[in-house]
Amino acid sequence: MNGTIKTKTDKGYGFIAREGEDKDLFFHSTDLSGVSFDELQVGSTVSFDVEQGEKGPSAKNVKLAQAEAQTEAPSAEAEETPEAETTK
């Protein structure tokens, strides 16, 4: 699922505005994956899993969505390079 960081506190937690949902989702700094709490900014696009906790649903495995896109980009460029050389 994707969303946007809506708020962050100095206590290590915040809320994510989910696409297509009215209620924001709680996340804690211990639920981050591959990103530090300080790297997240209000407005950052993130991907995450939703899990039911004691106090309701919360976000787990929170990652920057751009980081996933950047990881995939080099492999796509690598595939294009041999084709370009073949046509020359």
What do these coordinates show?
This protein has a 5-stranded antiparallel beta sheet. The chain is α+β, with helices and mostly antiparallel strands and 88 residues long. The termini are far apart. Helices cover 26% and strands 40% of the residues. The chain has one helix at 65-87, and strands at residues 2-8, 13-18, 25-28, 45-53, 56-64. It has 1 helix and 5 strands. The chain is globular, with a radius of gyration of 17 Å. The chain has a single domain (2-87), classed as Beta Barrel (OB fold (Dihydrolipoamide Acetyltransferase, E2P)), CATH 2.40.50.140.
Produce the secondary structure layout.
Blueprint: E1 2-8, E2 13-18, E3 25-28, E4 45-53, E5 56-64, H1 65-87
Antiparallel strand pairs: 1-2, 1-4, 2-3, 4-5
